[in-house]
Amino acid sequence: MEVLTDLNTAFEVEAAKPELAFLPLGATEQHSRHLPIGTDTITGELLSADILSAVDRPGAALLLRTLPISSSMENTGFVGTMLFTPMTMRGIVRDAWQSVSRVGIRWLVVAAWHGGNFIVKPVVREQNWEIGRCGVIYLNPWEHVPEEAFEGFATGFEVHSGDVETSLMLALCPEHVRDNCRDNPVPFKAIWQDMFSMKTLSGGEGNAGSPSRATAQKGRPIARAIVEGSARYIEEVLKMADQYPQY
Q1: Count of CB atoms within 10 A of residue 197's CB?
Q2: CB 166 within 8 A of CB 181
Q3: Which of 33, 34, 153, 222 satisfies CB 3.0 to 4.6 Å to 181 for a cystine?
Q4: What are the structural domains, with CATH classification, of the chain?
Q5: CA dist 120 to 87, 94, 117, Å?
Q6: Structure pTM?
């Protein structure tokens, strides 16, 4: 797809007649001692355009600026973590849809680069039910990375600031990765974040896993897998939306 951004003028966007808008949800939250608090926002900024460019569909898409704050309650307790409550996130998604749909854009992709945005899924479902068709599309880019992509990592996919996420950052922007990481092999399940903070679960380190094993060489295939898997998913949903015009 042709990708327009907020560097285009309103008249340029209108002339291109985009059928899809793409809202990346980043975060401002702790990522241990070696990754910046803007990690999820940075990855969203660097990979979202590549995803849209890889979508094999005619027409244009409007890439919106990455939202730098989202639902990060599980990472509170560290200085620098900012959060919106689930109800605020609900309002943001609904208002974003109203903003794009009223000017003729048919679809809004809400891309959760921060995995803690659990509230977004039911909001998308609610919105599509209300409008009577598939208009809002939920995307968690990490969910579309195949399992085999993590085979080169000793402990598979580590949820937060471990080998995988640090390798991705080394591949995308090594200048933002500090060399003072600490491995923290604590037992960890993502679902626990519904009941306990990351500060508690990680013993205060803010990460889980082995960031010392991270390399840019391992991160580059992850970046490609994120882009390719997310683009395929968007293509599939849009084809289904064409096939099933009602909810």
Answers
A1: 16
A2: yes
A3: 34
A4: 2-243 (3.40.50.10310)
A5: 10, 10, 6
A6: 0.96
